[in-house]
């Protein structure tokens, strides 16, 4: 489980509250029900309006993935592919049927299974690349929901502030209450900007990053399956796949 999002969002909120206390503020004064309802409720609803209900449901599931999900780096699959290539070269593709029982990567299992079944290499590549494209589109829809929230929230916060100032103008005959009313009016803007930059946009960015890592891993697997199917030398397979990795993962994969 990658804790980066939980640490970042939670830590950011703690820093903001701490800064508020150090300035002599009262954190409870920020938790006014009306601005919170307006900013969060309206932001989510207008983001739903910008897509489909299916998109909204998928985004709700993606929220859990942003906080609790993780993806193994692409480099970690290279040793597995090299071992499969070595066995296929020595014993043939059919020998990989038993080896598939010990592989927990569904995408790799699917690719190797297609190869074992005698599927044409070009067709195997087309099938696997089609899954990558579908995965990328699905991940983009989930991330878009949260980036949309980040775009809408500040403006909705301003709407809340304008509504609050209208209420202030209605009570000019009671000057002793103006300070409190004006402060409450600006809480909506605070939550709009805060939620966008501390919550929505970071979550959207995290989902995009997880997608990039997973797609990179899938692309490595596609090249690995093609090499296994062609009967390439395991050492060549290792160098070929390692060359596709970022520098920080390359040394680890080669050592493994």
List keywords for this structure.
256 residues; mainly alpha; 0% strand
How does this model look, in words?
It is a single chain. The chain is an all-alpha fold. It has one domain (4-75, 123-255). The chain has helices spanning 4-22, 33-49, 53-68, 78-91, 96-99, 106-116, 121-169, 178-230, 234-242, 247-255. Helix 2 (33-49) packs antiparallel against helix 7, helix 3 crosses helix 7 and helix 4 (78-91) packs parallel to helix 8 (178-230). The radius of gyration is 26 Å and the shape is elongated.
Question: How do the strands and helices of this protein lay out in sequence?
Answer:
Elements: H1 4-22, H2 33-49, H3 53-68, H4 78-91, H5 96-99, H6 106-116, H7 121-169, H8 178-230, H9 234-242, H10 247-255
Helix pairs in contact: 1-8, 2-7, 2-8, 3-7, 3-8, 4-8, 4-9, 6-7, 6-8, 7-8, 8-9
Q: Give the percentage of residues in beta strands.
A: under 5%
Number of helices: 10
Report the major sheet.
none
Structural class: mainly alpha
Task: Give helix and strand order, one letter per element, not per position.
Answer: HHHHHHHHHH
Number of individual domains: 1
Say how many strands there are.
Answer: 0
Summarize the structure.
By secondary structure, the protein is an all-alpha fold. It is 79% helix and 0% strand. The mean pLDDT is 87.
